[in-house]
Amino acid sequence: MSNDTFLRALRREPVEYTPVWMMRQAGRYLPEYRETRAQAGGIQDLFANPELACEVTLQPLRRFDLDAAILFSDILTIPDALGLGLYFETGEGPRFRNPVQNEAAITRLKVLQTEKDLPYVLDAVRLIRRELNGRVPLIGFSGSPWTLATYMVEGGSSKDFARIKTLAYEQPQVLQHLLGVLTESVADYLCAQIRSGAQAVQLFDTWGGALSAAAYRKFSLQPMQSIVEHVKAAHPDIPVIVFTKNGGLWLDGILETACDCIGLDWTMDIGVARQQVGERVALQGNMDPAILRASPAVIRQEVADILAAYGHGNGHIFNLGHGITPDIPPEHAGAFIDAVHELSPAYHQ
Amino acid sequence: MSNDTFLRALRREPVEYTPVWMMRQAGRYLPEYRETRAQAGGIQDLFANPELACEVTLQPLRRFDLDAAILFSDILTIPDALGLGLYFETGEGPRFRNPVQNEAAITRLKVLQTEKDLPYVLDAVRLIRRELNGRVPLIGFSGSPWTLATYMVEGGSSKDFARIKTLAYEQPQVLQHLLGVLTESVADYLCAQIRSGAQAVQLFDTWGGALSAAAYRKFSLQPMQSIVEHVKAAHPDIPVIVFTKNGGLWLDGILETACDCIGLDWTMDIGVARQQVGERVALQGNMDPAILRASPAVIRQEVADILAAYGHGNGHIFNLGHGITPDIPPEHAGAFIDAVHELSPAYHQ
Fold first, then answer.
1. What is this structure's pTM?
2. Considering A37, A95, A274, A300, which one is annotated as catalytic?
């Protein structure tokens, strides 16, 4: 591989500079993405088509000096493959035709068999690896069981998670059944992505932070721990990243999953996080994506502050604290990536 | 006063049981509130009318054995009085006719003079104190400067705080001017409420948790610290509560404000919080309001778990981790309050 900086940083090995990628780097802020998507029809026509998924995965790498590619796909491919009928309503985000809102619907769910149920994702992984041709590593990913379950029970995005929290507190055994199906499914999905060529994987736990500390442990962390164990048993050399948005309070818990890297959102001081868990795990993050709306000089200063907070030494992968938003000028994303590359070598001497 | 348990708990003095109140306890989940509001016209007709504000403040105390009353008012009375033109759009929440979105608009703002600009709030405080007749203490409140500023700059509720964060990073001195006006205004507002009869005050920092650790300190915590200093200088015996939603990572910082009590949302384990800061400050919280949708038996178990997590001794005020939502059956709120009163004496022997 011509650039394995990202993989070395995940193993907390020495690197020459801090590697950087952006959550949602293949996305709507790029005019070429919007064009490809408009030609294809909609987002589902992109991620279900391996050639187009490959194309949009590679688009940000043509513009920017990124240290990793991440598979372009939707976080909700698993529930869709389980029969929930994913669709997208303009301005409303993802929806399901058949949400699972009672015990009977949840009991009927069968564990995902990725090779059979989501072949297009694996085809995309293989194609991207071939097209990347060793330039940078490819990250595979999945939503966490809890995060997938929120969409499956609520029927789409939610503000207060009323349905799934009622399920969690009134019928915890039913929710645990759903989480069990998803845990096995996500483990199968990630292992299949790895067999097809993914060189690291990330669990996106977007909504774990909506839970209490105790409920997070039961309903979000424990399933993720099972997945990490499963993936590590089959693929001990593939680094696993666990990202719980608003999970800064629970780093010690996340560490127990035995993941290689913890993703941080911007609310956590990365220096404090390093003091707490940095001897045992790599840290990924954590600039507020809102800062990309500011001028390149402001972006550069924020990068400098985060690098200084992390300090000298290994184990830092630079990223945003959440996905880049559609309104960001691409040249601001470029200024961000360049700043990381220009300012970080001083911390690796 | 016939029941000063709440005030003693705020001072971390011995109590016979853990006092309890609920954020937004006077609100839409109560049919009598909905009736009063429908008769009045809208929410603005409620909080701008001292008799009606008094009536809805007292409604939950007629139903439940609450240990404190909280002034019924809107969090956005200050910006309204500063000329922003508050209105409410059905299903959309609060809006401003004249948001302040540039330097000129912000520079024109003048500091609130509560006695002159918001006499109806002070009339309500006096009336409620008279009607309470010493039954339980009355809490006054204000939004934090950062939280008020988010609404004033965004023009209403916001999902990603795009405008105010751009202001924060591009023109920090302009935002600091706005926060300065609001800091003086909030301090004046709280002191006026205290002079009119409020026996404790709470700062609601609903949106501080949307900031990075460093930005929280600059834009939300520092203004709150100035306000606490100002209030304490004028009224050293009045307890001050600071509540930052999603502020669990920053308890040591919040402690520096010299507040008497830190409000916790449900993401923080209250036992961990007590270990961290509980020798120096009282703690208020922190049940997930979503649990009030579950059955009374589940609510009771959750109350038991939170009491056990806090443990024996003084300094705990029970509350929800955020406001009670309109869909909660009132009898579930009653089960919550009764459970606190029935289960907590064991922790105060």
1. 0.96
2. A37
